[in-house]
């Protein structure tokens, strides 16, 4: 295959893939924004948040300075 043929194949592939990725990104962005808007109505209990923190260190204690 010549260089021009490879270039046209790559260009056609990019023209087919990037619009699909753009639509998927746009859809995910819309869903994320809708989910974030719904979080305004949620009251998070700070004690529950500390109890369920999945961190290597305890969530209610400061981290060591080297982290």
Write up this protein:
The protein is elongated, with a radius of gyration of 23 Å. The mean pLDDT is 82. It is 63% helix and 0% strand. The chain has helices at 3-38, 46-51. The protein is mainly α. It contains 2 helices and no strands.
In whole angstroms, the N-to-C terminal distance is 53 Å
From the alpha-carbon coordinates, what is the Rg to the nearest angstrom?
23 Å
Q: Which overall shape is indicated by the principal axes computed on the Cα atoms?
A: elongated
The main sheet comes to: none
- The SS-based structural class is mainly alpha
The beta-strand count equals: 0
Poorly predicted runs:
none
Helix content: 55-70%
The overall pLDDT, averaged over residues, is: 82
Measured by DSSP, the beta-strand proportion falls in: under 5%
Features:
mainly alpha; 67 residues; 2 helices
Outline of the structure:
This protein is 63% helix and 0% strand.
């Amino acid at each position: 295959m010549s260089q021009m043929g490879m270039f046209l194949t790559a260009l056609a592939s990019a023209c087919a893939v990037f619009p699909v990725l753009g639509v998927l990104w746009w859809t995910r962005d819309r869903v994320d924004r809708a989910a974030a808007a719904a979080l305004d109505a949620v009251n998070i209990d700070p004690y529950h948040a500390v109890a369920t923190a999945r961190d290597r260190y305890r969530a209610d204690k400061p981290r060591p300075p080297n982290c």
